[in-house]
TrEMBL record:
Keywords: Cytoplasm, Lipid biosynthesis, Lipid metabolism, Metal-binding, NAD, NADP, Oxidoreductase, Phospholipid biosynthesis, Phospholipid metabolism. GO terms for molecular function: glycerol-1-phosphate dehydrogenase [NAD(P)+] activity; metal ion binding. This is Glycerol-1-phosphate dehydrogenase [NAD(P)+]. It comes from Actinomyces slackii. Pfam families: Fe-ADH_2. The gene is egsA. PANTHER family: GLYCEROL DEHYDROGENASE, GLYCEROL DEHYDROGENASE 1.
Amino acid sequence: MTPTSGTDLIAQALGTATDTKEIIVGTDVLDATGELFARVFPGARVIVVADENTFAAAGQPVVDSLAAAGVEAVEPCIFPGSPTLYAGYDNVELLRERIRPLESTIVCSIAAGTLNDIAKLASGELGRPYMNVCTAASVDGYASFGASISKDGFKITRDCPAPAALVADLGVIAAAPQRLTATGYGDLIEKIPAGADWILADELGIEPIDPYVWGLVQGPLRQALADPERIGAGDPGAIRGLTEGNIMSGLAMQAAQSSRPASGAGHQFSHTWEMEGHGLDWEPPLSHGMKVGIGTVASCAMWQEALALDIEAVDAEAVLAAARSDEQIEARVRAALSERIAQEAVGHSVAKNLQGDALAERIAAIKEAWPRIVERVSPQLMSPEEVAQRLAAVGAPYHPETIGIDMERFRATHLKAQMIRPRYTILDALTDLGLLETVIDRLFAPQGYWGRHPHQDQD
Ligand SMILES: NC(=O)C1=CN([C@@H]2O[C@H](COP(=O)(O)OP(=O)(O)OC[C@H]3O[C@@H](n4cnc5c(N)ncnc54)[C@H](OP(=O)(O)O)[C@@H]3O)[C@@H](O)[C@H]2O)C=CC1
Ligand SMILES: O=C(CO)COP(=O)(O)O
């Protein structure tokens, strides 16, 4: 039977999930936490991990439910609620060392994206499973393999198993601050251009699409994104769709053991600003999904411009002659990025840098595949205007100015975003074709998307 609801899709995906055994999504389900814990971790003790915000949102019912199920509990670990917890490796170490001496003790975190990732990596480094009670529809990282954690200033997804179980109480999630719901929409909508980036990598034989994984993330995606007004207004049914869409996206990352299904060039804009520290000292800090939403507009605008190019006319000889050496790439990365980001970014950028025969082959491959790429990517994408309208409708920022990024910095981010990850996206295809700067020029020219939308109030 073909699953019809998000709940059915999650149940089906769990059948093949590598780490996650059970996910409970519903209204008034916090009191199921204890029995779920006892079922998934028989005989284990629990340590509840939360921060003051998330404990206030769901803590006591979770503690009561664990006690009612007869689960022995050690003293909870409650992080301060203010300043907002950051996804830094120091917090992972802090939690890991707190739980290390506690034998047969499993973390039950009560958390949105940040603390879930901290609990995931701290548990993973000790080879222990964990579970999470989700407090907002703010991210797709709940069910994912890997934790996005910053270490020495570089933020990237670090390998560790997904949670063994999740509880997502829709009452708690709907009552979370509206900005957390809006940010979850921003994280989810990037799966649209991220899908286009994956099609590109698939067509070039760089990272083939696994149809099963593709279906997990892309299957429920458009339905989950369908009604930003209702999501923004806090409608429970629409928030359920967003929650389930984000969980499915996490399950796709779990099935792929990679964030490829959920993260493309749009995410790379967000990661660049985050590593530059942009908005981290705001209270509340500028969230992941808010930055990803703007990155999604940027990525869709770039794809739109790319699809209008005459790729067949690209002069491969000229591109080869102008190709940068690895030393030149390193110098560019070091000039663009601060020292602590550049250190790791140089490795990714140099590894992606093609010259000579390898570059000639890549250009030929892009030319050969381009008609199929256009055919497959066109129905996948949304226009940048549509993405911006949807973000506005949900109550999320939709223009870089709104998040304090001026046009000069925004324009420069198009180049930096290509440097910080090994993942092949539209940024890399344009780089290989020697066209990235040309496309950026067109985007910011008077007729280009950003030329026509230089300020939020002119949108
Ligand atoms: N691993 C992965 O695959 C992915 C990871 N991420 C990462 O997730 C992080 C972003 O997570 P996000 O959820 O946006 O932000 P946070 O987890 O930082 O949440 C923002 C703030 O809201 C609090 N909060 C959460 N729920 C409630 C509630 N119900 N009531 C009141 N306050 C609440 C949070 O507490 P608390 O800190 O306890 O959550 C925190 O103080 C980033 O680090 C990002 O990189 C994003 C996508 C995928
Ligand atoms: O944030 C992510 C998915 O939402 C994944 O981030 P990466 O692209 O750094 O793996």
